Amino acid sequence: MSGERRPSSPAGTGGESTHAESDADADNSGALGSWGRMELVFAALLVVAVAGTAALILAPPNDTTAADADSGATGPAAATPTHTPTAAPAAATSPNVTMRVRSVENCGSRCRTVTIALSNEGAEAARDVRVATSITTGDSLVWEASSDVGRIATEETATRTRTVRIGYADAAKIKANDGRIRIETVVRTANATRTFTEERTVV
Prior knowledge:
Low-confidence stretches: 7-22, 48-92
Number of strands: 7
Shape: elongated
CATH class of the largest domain: Mainly Beta
Strand content: 35-45%
Number of domains: 2
Mean pLDDT: 71
Helix content: 25-40%
């Protein structure tokens, strides 16, 4: 009937049920919140691990990272200039006497006239100049002589002409060597000695 009153639940029963349900919901939401955070942490670790593995796989061999190469320094490393030592020019000898064979002329079947020029290209006069000349063919000495020149001033040239006559045996040696001779002249001064050589064919 419309006027019937149903028995109501005890006052304490309804409140306890509501409170228990609230506690259960709070526990469930806390558990879900904790599980969500764990999933996020695990996912982040997984991303880092995968990224590191990909970097190792994709990195070219012998690749050096900026942290390894830089070691805390900023900006590119400055190149160290390489110094190439330059050899110092040799000091010129003073006096500096040079020798040149100006001519070798035929004065007979076993005779040659040889003219040499001695030039002082140094800054001081050359003193006590002496010239010794030897002529060889192969390993055989066929002629030699020496003479005193004396003093040669700076930028001065002194010439000497010698007539070279050889015997029949030495002429045969030159002919057997296809006429090739070697002229060696040693120029001595008061403070230096220089040797000049020249090869010629005379037959």
